[in-house]
Amino acid sequence: SAGARRGEDGVLRLGGVPVTQLAAEFGTPAYFLDEDDFRARARAWREAFAGADVFYAGKAFLSRAVVRWLVEEGLNLDVCSGGELAVALAGGMPAERLALHGNNKSRAELAAAVEAGVGRIVVDSFEEIERLDAIARERGVRQGVLVRVTVGVEAHTHEFIATAHEDQKFGLALAGGQAAEAVRRVLAADGLTLLGLHSHIGSQIFDTAGFEVAARRVVGLLAEIRDEHGVELPEIDLGGGLGIAYTPADDPRDPAEIAKSLGWIVQRECEAAGLAAPRLSVEPGRAIAGPTTFTLYEVGTVKPLEGLRTYVSVDGGMSDNIRTALYDAEYSVVLASRASSAPPMLSRVVGKHCESGDIVVRDAYLPADVRPGDLLAVPATGAYCRSMASNYNHLTRPPVVAVRDGRARVIVRRETPEDLLALDVG
Ligand code: LLP
After folding, report:
1. According to the model, what pLDDT value does residue 155 have?
2. What does the pLDDT look like over 292-314, one tens digit per residue?
3. What DSSP letter does each residue of 340-360 carry, written as one string?
4. Is there a smaller number of Cβ atoms within 10 Å at the N or the C end of the chain?
């Protein structure tokens, strides 16, 4: 993160606090989050999309403190379950600034959202349109909705693929007229108000061309809706997905650059179609949370495998970062607790789980004198690490510690064996 630097003694510091001190106070493994960096990234998005709405995607990482920062920095929040909704409300996000997502929201989740006054629910199926309409009418309200459109663009990491039919579970397909039919049904529903269209094409994307194709196709549907129904929808949401740097090879785009290119395309396409440009909104998750945090681990064992590499085992693993095992994600790692002038040694940083796929960093060069007791920092773990953490092997999930102005405070505490036993009521 922006605030992590080595001191003259070679010890990595966050906001001026040495990691050795952080480890002594909070234990390892632990996630250390640079609060100023989080706020600065949130602000950069809000400023880049001035006049548009930025909905931080809570699935990347959510806690009450995060919700408070978002409120203070003027962002909205996208949630995708009843649990995230509960945290959002508990953290003080006004319900009208919330969006609810999901391809299979339960009736209870839909009802909770309607009752709380959630500003927009992104509908994802015909069944949901019917269910939500009934829930809203029973309560005598009109619920604002966006229709999630599958535009036929699937973007993954460095490239995007445009296909006629996406073989996946989300959204209502543009091709074949499902999206247009969903729009018809929402417009006919007395309990629903159609606010606009939504598209999300993927995650960890560097190539903005995928967003541009999506924007053009969504505007195309806006024009069809105008022609068929005589209504011009006021908003399009182009989702999240902007990639971050996990390794030096990654070259992320800037939110301002995305805002400019999307704004321009939407403007141009709307002009061509004779539409007033709709309000644009976006849902960045990883791009805000990801770079703000590093995970700190303590080395327990060092096992050289002749002619292969050295296995460096740390005190966490796939339970605090599943992304390497699940997506073959690439991370980097540094020796954080001291300087070393030892030569680099091909290493694999692995966890303590009973599984050989329990890899945190597949290929890394660590100083050859790395030894038990050393602290290792893995950067860019702020998104989809704590939020996807598990209790595999009954490990307790690590805390999240926010550092600001040289002060560190726990925002999500470490789990304890008692927490785990409390659920075990047999
Ligand atoms: N909006 C919608 C509707 C989404 O489904 C997502 C992410 C986002 C926004 C935020 O996307 P972001 O800006 O964070 O890329 N667990 C995976 C990522 C799953 C993303 C799911 N949807 C990972 O660890 O890479």
Report:
1. 78
2. 999 999 999 999 999 999 999 99
3. --SPEEEEEEE-SSSSTT-EE
4. C
Annotated binding site for pyridoxal 5'-phosphate: 241, 283-286, 384
User: Is the pTM here over 0.90, yes or no?
Assistant: yes
- CB of 171 closer than 6 A to ligand 1? no
Residue indicated by tokens 């091909």: 346
Pocket mutation for ligand 1, best pick of 59, 77, 122 (most atoms within 8 Å of C-beta) = 59
The CATH number of whichever domain residue 201 belongs to comes to: 3.20.20.10
- Asked if 298 and 192 sit in the same domain, the reply is no
DSSP letter at 95?
A: G
Are residues 323 and 418 both part of a single domain? yes
Tell whether ipTM is more than 0.90: yes
In the structure, what pLDDT confidence band is assigned to residue 1 with cuts at 50, 70 and 90? low
Q: What is the pLDDT of residue 163?
A: 63
CA 124 to chain centre: 19
Task: Give yes or no for residue 164 having a pLDDT over 60.
Answer: no
Residue 278 sits in the same domain as residue 149: yes
CATH number, domain containing residue 367: 2.40.37.10
Residues of the binding site for substrate: 286, 323, 327, 355, 384
Catalytic pick among 80, 270, 354, 385: 354
275: left (phi over 0), alpha (psi -120 to 50) or beta: beta
Which of 223, 258, 288 is the C-terminal boundary of a domain? Answer: 288
pLDDT at 209: 87
Residue 43 predicted with pLDDT over 80 = yes
154, 202: one domain: yes
